[in-house]
Amino acid sequence: MTSILVLNGPNLNLLGTRQPDVYGATTLADIEASCSRWAKDAGCAVSFMQSNHEGALVDAIHAARGVHDGIVLNAGAYTHTSIALMDAIASVELPTIELHLSNVHAREEFRHTSYIAKVCVGIICGFGAHGYKLAIEALVSHLKD
To answer: CB under 8 Å to 57, separation ≥6 — which residues?
Structure first.
């Protein structure tokens, strides 16, 4: 069975209360429950991890090798700053989808640069919590191809 790691970065543990006008009112627990349903419908298994610490995210990416077939990564602000996450993704050679709840291209200029995009198979942004479903579907499709 296909296995996907859904990895969430800094401040995403505050979803539902953190800037709901930007990130929506859905909590991370709600997103994880929805992802579990969507993954089951897609015939795959899904695991979750969230950390506010860059090194923990790098460790999770490393640990995914040989366990998961791909990664959905909402790296939060680390998207725009972390060469370490970029290198980790490149090192494990697992297809990874970059995901953002908001449309980062309609926001501040610094959010327009993504270090991890260079090593991801695709990017989904601006669809709120529904973006997780889109990312799972896209990753499952990519893995079948």
So the answer is: 7, 9, 51, 75, 78, 85, 88
**Annotated catalytic residue: which of 68, 78, 100, 132?**
100
Check residue 23 and give its pLDDT.
72
Q: Which domains does the chain have, with CATH numbers?
A: 2-144 (3.40.50.9100)
Has 23 been annotated as catalytic? yes
115 is catalytic: no
123-133: per-residue pLDDT in tens? Answer: 999 999 999 99
Pick the catalytic residue from 23, 78, 115, 132: 23
Question: E strands along the chain, which residues?
Answer: 2-8, 44-50, 70-74, 96-100, 122-125
* 5/42: higher pLDDT: 5
Question: For the chain, percent helix, then strand, then coil, each to nearest 5?
Answer: 50, 20, 30
Return the bridge partners of 8, or none.
50, 74
Per-residue DSSP letter, 119: G
